[in-house]
């Protein structure tokens, strides 16, 4: 449908249209707070940037993803109140916002245009996604109509997120005369996602001869991180404007519109390295999870190993040194190198640091278990007891001081079950849950390139859980360079065991790794959530039954 807008400008000269991309961090469920953020941003866009249109992210009034909050009986009432509040403000710029809107008894993921105290148009998302982390069809009906409105005489089409990834919605808007497409997004981060977005927008813009404004959400929401990276592509498919990733703010762009809407290009941000990009995602995820859930501080076990070292660095960078507590909990197998390196890093980062030996507690437990364990040999039971004692200490500090426990397991370990239930898995948030071990090493080198905080020996010496004498991770696992490749093929790309063997890997390694992944689903179900950085993490992405009879093979 076409909706008339404001009056046309002088047709003898190019019409100017100023759009502000509101790349902001919204709190899921806080509809009144999010509404006030929209109003504040619009006022700022008007005063500082003389905005004609302010484009907000998808479902900004509820935050994204609102999940089953969308099923709450009071949802419609709260959204109605929010929309009335936006209209009452009677602001000059047009606000293009995202909100759940009910029409004809069905709920839609909508873009709502509020201009000068009125709702001037509504667009219902036509392609609600239902894959990976998305399950929008659980909540939303599919829209069917096209919306093209005039702003200062410029025909502008509106679409929502997934609509631009599918054929149809953008093409229909262009066919209806749109010279400019506004696209509201809540597109979660994963490695290389921004490059895929750019390629898509450049192709869509060039194919349809329309410029595209792509505004994306920024911030962390449980396991998801939204990286922003809002951008503008011109009608020839050239990237003209790009907002920095992981930074909230208002980003204006001016268009000169005649036969086409041509954005005035701006200097593009420097392309970040993969390591910098992932590190920023982790920092954003930790910062927002801790702050949005009201935790005063975090506590973690600092072992002198690389996983806890990188976790500590991320936590301190996300929250500041005064909100981070690191605890070394040595045992008889803890090396002097681990003790020295943990203290060195804690000192370098300026965080609170404590040392609590678990040896006395371990001895008491073993005395209590002496009779039932009589006649048995030491095995992983005694190793796991060490990890569980550490978990009890950290959880006690959490309870007493209101600190969130950060666990330190990486994706490689979580995949194969190289972790202890109610031990090193005990906590509220796993920073490295979706980070393969080989990438953990790269992140450590990257963080040290900013300032030297992780002792080099932590990065270079062979990884060890130090739960037994002279223990090394690779005593019980393939080398991480091999393990991570197998896991990538099996977990993220769904290769079968036979297909992985055909890629050149040893059959024994493949079958062992695949079996470990399969039998440890029960552990992952009980693990804390963590930041998602890959296309397929252990969480919303991958939902396998714990009890199943699926056999390794083709």
Automatic annotation (TrEMBL):
Biological processes per GO annotation: NAD+ biosynthetic process
Protein name: Glutamine-dependent NAD(+) synthetase
Pathway given in the UniProt record: Cofactor biosynthesis; NAD(+) biosynthesis; NAD(+) from deamido-NAD(+) (L-Gln route): step 1/1
Binding residues for ATP: 301-308, 408
Active-site residues (renumbered): 58 (proton acceptor), 125 (for glutaminase activity), 161 (nucleophile)
Coiled-coil boundaries: none
Gene3D superfamilies attached to this UniProt entry: Carbon-nitrogen hydrolase, HUPs
Recorded family membership: Belongs to the NAD synthetase family. In the C-terminal section; belongs to the NAD synthetase family.
Known role: Catalyzes the ATP-dependent amidation of deamido-NAD to form NAD. Uses L-glutamine as a nitrogen source.
Source organism: Marinobacter vinifirmus
Entry's Gene Ontology molecular function annotations: ATP binding; glutaminase activity; NAD+ synthase (glutamine-hydrolyzing) activity; NAD+ synthase activity
Limits of the CN hydrolase domain: 17-257
Reaction catalyzed: deamido-NAD(+) + L-glutamine + ATP + H2O = L-glutamate + AMP + diphosphate + NAD(+) + H(+)
Keywords tagged on the record: ATP-binding, Ligase, NAD, Nucleotide-binding
Residue positions binding L-glutamine: 131, 187, 193
GO cellular component terms, A-Z: cytoplasm
Gene (name only): nadE
PROSITE patterns: CN_HYDROLASE (PS50263)
């Amino acid at each position: 449908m076409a909706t008339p807008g404001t009056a046309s400008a002088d047709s003898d000269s190019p019409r100017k249209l100023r759009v502000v991309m509101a790349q902001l961090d919204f709190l899921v469920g806080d509809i009144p707070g999010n509404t006030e953020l929209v109003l504040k941003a619009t006022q700022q866009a008007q005063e500082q940037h003389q905005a004609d249109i302010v484009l907000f992210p998808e479902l900004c009034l509820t935050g994204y993803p609102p999940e089953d909050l969308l099923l709450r009986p009071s949802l419609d009432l709260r959204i109605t109140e929010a929309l009335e509040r936006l209209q009452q403000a009677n602001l000059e710029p047009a606000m293009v916002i995202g909100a759940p809107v009910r029409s004809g008894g069905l709920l839609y993921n909508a873009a709502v245009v509020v201009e000068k105290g009125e709702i001037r148009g509504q667009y219902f998302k036509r392609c609600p996604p239902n894959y990976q982390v998305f399950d929008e069809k659980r909540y939303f009906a599919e829209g069917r109509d096209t919306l093209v409105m005039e702003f200062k005489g410029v025909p502008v089409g509106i679409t929502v997120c997934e609509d631009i990834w599918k054929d149809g919605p953008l093409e229909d808007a262009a066919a209806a005369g749109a010279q400019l497409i506004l696209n509201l997004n809540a597109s979660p981060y994963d490695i290389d996602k921004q490059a895929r977005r750019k390629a898509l927008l450049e192709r869509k813009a060039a194919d349809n001869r329309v410029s595209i404004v792509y505004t994306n959400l920024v911030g962390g929401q449980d396991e998801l991180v939204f990286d922003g990276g809002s951008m503008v592509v011109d009608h020839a498919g050239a990237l003209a404007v790009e907002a920095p990733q992981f930074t909230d703010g208002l980003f204006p762009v001016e268009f000169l519109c005649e036969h086409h809407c041509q954005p005035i290009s701006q200097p593009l941000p420097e392309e970040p390295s993969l390591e910098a990009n992932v590190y920023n995602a982790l920092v954003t995820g930790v910062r927002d999870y801790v702050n949005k859930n009201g935790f005063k501080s975090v506590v973690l076990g600092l072992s002198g190993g690389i996983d806890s070292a990188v976790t500590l660095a991320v936590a301190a960078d996300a929250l500041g040194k005064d909100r981070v507590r690191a605890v070394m909990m040595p045992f008889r197998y803890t090396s002097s190198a681990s003790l020295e390196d943990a203290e060195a890093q804690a000192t370098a980062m300026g965080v609170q640091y404590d040392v609590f030996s678990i040896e006395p507690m371990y001895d008491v437990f073993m005395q209590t278990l002496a009779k039932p364990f009589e006649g048995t040999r030491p095995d992983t039971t005694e190793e796991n007891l060490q990890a569980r004692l550490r978990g009890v200490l950290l959880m006690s500090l959490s309870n007493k001081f209101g600190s969130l426990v950060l666990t330190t397991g990486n994706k490689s370990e979580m995949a194969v079950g190289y972790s202890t239930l109610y031990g090193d898995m005990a906590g509220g948030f796993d920073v490295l849950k979706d980070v393969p071990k080989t990438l953990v090493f790269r992140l450590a080198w990257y963080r040290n390139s900013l300032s030297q905080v992780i002792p080099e020996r932590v990065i270079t010496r062979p990884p060890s859980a130090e739960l037994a004498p002279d223990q090394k991770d690779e005593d019980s696992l393939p080398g991480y360079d091999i393990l991570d490749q197998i896991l990538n093929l099996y977990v993220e790309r769904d290769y079968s065991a036979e297909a992985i063997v055909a890629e050149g890997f040893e059959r024994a390694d493949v079958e062992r790794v695949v079996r470990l992944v399969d039998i440890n689903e029960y552990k992952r179900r009980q693990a804390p959530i963590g930041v998602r950085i890959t296309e397929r993490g252990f969480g919303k992405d991958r939902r396998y039954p714990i009890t199943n009879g699926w056999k390794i093979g083709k």
